[in-house]
Write a structure and sequence with these properties.
heterodimer; A: alpha/beta; Rossmann fold; five-stranded parallel β-sheet; 6 helices; about 15% strand; B: alpha+beta; seven-stranded antiparallel β-sheet; five-stranded mixed β-sheet; about 40% helix; elongated; binds adenosine-5'-diphosphate; binds magnesium ion
């Protein structure tokens, strides 16, 4: 069984890139462009991983993550990873307050897309060892 | 004219002080109403006495915004946060004045408790930031905004090139794509270095220290550079120390320390020619762990040695680079009260040493 990855990214180009690259890396990828959509899919799609941008059109990435945490049952099986163009101390701190350590705060352009894929794979093996 | 309730001598003196100091002073009561603000405060927010709205919600008078004049969110609004955390807050902020100017200020606010430890009021001091400080801040903001604005397009470019490189291309096209990809990755590193440099110059190097194992971190960095060493026919070795009994623990931000090790390894690889050797070492020296990176490369002449940690200093331009790597290494190492130095002779290679204080477990 492929691992489900929910990508929350409002930049269409980046969303396309993530979709293709992470599919090639072996994930089942669903991408959405805003926080509201992300919340809906979080419940329906039950992703193993969420890759979330911070600067989003209405709800911010932080708001979105906070609301996802309102579903503790689902959150138990989900790892959240932030990817942002911003790296201010304040934002990193805010992420920590939401339980996301610096290793899971990735900065756009400071990490290649292949490295992002590696980080994602590091949190969850793409194929469970037991499945054939 | 500000509030002058009593007329004792003490009160007169206090009023005189309050009316004449440049700092703004204000008081907010537990109903979230602004109950007092002195003349200095009015000057800073560019309000006249008749515009002043005392005994009204403080939000009508003290408007916290970001540098683009947008109201800050509650989580970033110190006057909202203080009621939750009930602790003094000291921070830089922007106020939107009554004349719609954006004024950078330094703010200190403190909670006032009654005998029952109930928070009954908040008193605050606003200080206009000096022109010098403002300019410094503007520069930092600019560099930070500029590099952020560049990150998204750069990440997009990198992503497309990465996808392109996985397509079925002819050999020549493969080489071009790979070169373009490398260049874009290099540009990403350049922006990162510029941002780090600008942060470190005003003592704002962001970092999140934690307990980390230096041996693990060096092993990762060593593994990451093995491929490029092979490519250049350089032998990269790590003479791993026999396991230190307490572990190689330091207290630092793993990303920042990795930045140091990566920079030194990249330099060694860059400035060593084919068939050379690069050796990593880790040792215990008194209260420090000492990391050594030794190469058999170009070496550095006595005349260049004193300048090698200066920013933008480069000995020759034959290799790509910015001259920021070693400057950043030094800033990071100093942040953790460590030391970095080198021994080198022209044409005989270079050894860099980094001392980092051991983490004393309690
Ligand atoms: N291991 C080394 N061997 C020889 N020269 C070095 C070595 N490391 C650094 N240098 C010299 O020091 C300069 C500054 O290094 P650095 O700050 O990392 O900038 P950059 O590598 O971007 O030029 C380099 O340009 C190079 O001339
Ligand atoms: Mg360098």
């Amino acid at each position: 069984m492929k691992k489900r990855l929910l990508v929350v990214e409002d930049n269409q180009d980046l969303a396309d890139i993530y979709q293709l690259s992470f599919q090639q890396a072996g994930f089942e990828v669903l991408s959405v462009h805003d926080g509201e959509e992300a919340l809906k899919k979080f419940v329906d799609f039950q992703p193993h991983l969420v890759l979330c941008d911070i600067k989003l059109p209405s709800l911010s990435g932080f708001d979105t993550i906070e609301m996802m945490q309102g579903f503790p049952e689902l959150m138990k099986n989900t790892v959240i990873i932030i990817i942002s163009a911003y790296s201010d101390r304040k934002l990193i701190k805010r992420a920590q307050q939401l339980g996301i350590p610096t290793e899971r705060y990735l900065v756009k352009s400071q990490i290649s897309i292949n490295q992002v894929a590696q980080v994602l794979q590091g949190y969850i093996p793409v194929n469970e060892a037991s499945t054939s | 004219m500000t509030q002058k309730p009593h007329n004792s001598l003490n009160q007169q003196i206090t009023d005189l002080i309050l009316d004449n100091i440049e700092d703004g002073i204000f008081v907010i009561d537990h109903n979230q109403q602004l109950v007092f603000i002195n003349q200095g405060g009015l000057n800073i927010i560019e309000a006249s006495t008749n515009e002043l709205k005392l005994n009204r919600p403080w939000t009508e008078t003290l408007k916290f915004v970001n540098q683009h004049n947008l109201a800050v969110q509650d989580l970033d609004n110190p006057l909202k946060q203080i009621w939750i955390h009930q602790q003094s807050i000291r921070q830089d902020a922007y106020l939107l004045t009554f004349k719609d100017h954006n004024t950078p200020i330094h703010l200190i606010i403190s909670p006032i408790f009654d005998n029952q430890q109930q928070l009954i009021a908040v008193v605050g001091v606003i200080r206009e930031m000096s022109l010098e400080k403002q300019q410094e801040q503007a520069k930092t903001d600019f560099v930070s905004t500029a590099s952020h604005e560049m990150r998204t397009p750069l990440a997009t470019l990198e992503g497309y090139l990465s996808l392109l490189s996985k397509q079925d291309l002819n050999n020549q096209a493969k080489i071009y794509v790979s070169k373009a990809h490398q260049t874009v990755l290099h540009l990403g590193k350049l922006f990162k270095d510029l941002l780090t440099t600008s942060q470190s110059e005003d003592g704002q190097l962001s970092h999140k220290p934690q307990i980390i194992d230096l041996l693990d971190l060096m092993t990762t960095s060593f593994n990451n550079h093995q491929a490029s060493a092979n490519e250049k026919s350089i032998t990269l070795r790590f003479e791993k120390p026999s396991a230190f009994k307490q572990g190689w623990f330091i207290y630092a931000d793993p990303k920042r320390i990795a930045e140091v090790v990566d920079n030194l390894l990249e330099n060694a690889l860059k400035y060593t020619s084919a068939d050379g050797f690069i050796t990593l070492n880790l040792e215990e020296v008194d209260d420090f762990f000492q990391l050594q990176i030794k190469d058999t490369g170009l070496g550095i002449s006595q005349k260049d040695l004193p300048h090698i940690f200066q920013k933008f200093y480069r000995i020759d331009d034959s290799q790509p680079g910015t001259g920021l790597g070693l400057f950043i290494c030094k800033k990071i190492v100093e942040l953790y009260k460590g030391a970095i130095w080198l021994e080198s002779n022209l044409d005989q290679g270079t050894t860099f040493y980094v001392n980092l204080p051991k983490h004393e477990s309690g």
